[in-house]
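Reviewer comment 2.1 asked that we show a complete input and output for one of the modelled complexes. We chose the GLP case, as it is the one discussed in the main text.
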Amino acid sequence: MEIHIVTDAAEGARVVADVFEKTLRDAGDTGAVLGLATGSSPVPAYTELIRRHREEGLSFATAQAFLLDEYVGLPAGHEQSYHHFIRDNFTAHIDIDDAAVVSPAGDAADPVAEAAAYDARIVAAGGVDLQILGIGSNGHIAFNEPSSSLGSRTRVVGLAQSTIADNARYFEEAADVPVRALSQGLGTIREARRIVLTASGEHKAEAVAHLVEGAISARWPASSLQLHPDVVVVVDESAASQL
Ligand code: GLP
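Response of the prediction step:
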């Protein structure tokens, strides 16, 4: 793992954006396959990429993107859906083709079949070149909560109480937070050729310590990234404080 301890959000955003920029340039006309994450952690990097698009001509025109996860029960148009979040915070502000930004259908009649079809769609696209990740305070990545199988594929998962509490800030009340999600599995995520994970704040420090130097265990799902040969971790000093 390549660990960057940064002094502020702006520096972290630049480091992450540099990794994206290299991936886009390396892919050239073939078009990069990007794996995008929601949550607050990647937003500064998305903002920096939007700036580079507007001011420096960085183009995403040939790229396609797959989201990590989606809440079960929320249609694409719902304000709190991840389909909506990624457009609002990133892809509506760059030149990527909107139809090339794909996420699991939260309102699919058969979520189990939707999960399998989504996993197959990523494989059929040739896999993800660069996956950006945040990390939950309990060590989850995407919605792979503690006890997720290290080889898991995209599937329907239940959310941990702590995740529901963490994400309640986006909803009017905690009772509105969906209790299930469609999430890429730990095995699916590790098939990305490169991974960049970003985290900030004291509340992520324990999870970051398990990610970087803990035992590989389903108890801390992010620790499974130690099995991947090309992971870049970008953390601020608070998130790095237990390393
Ligand atoms: C959610 C998402 C994760 C994200 C996590 C952390 O549960 N499913 O992909 O990493 O929240 O969110 P934040 O970055 O807002 O702390």
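The first helix runs from residue 9 to 27. We note this here for comparison with the apo prediction described in Section 3.2.
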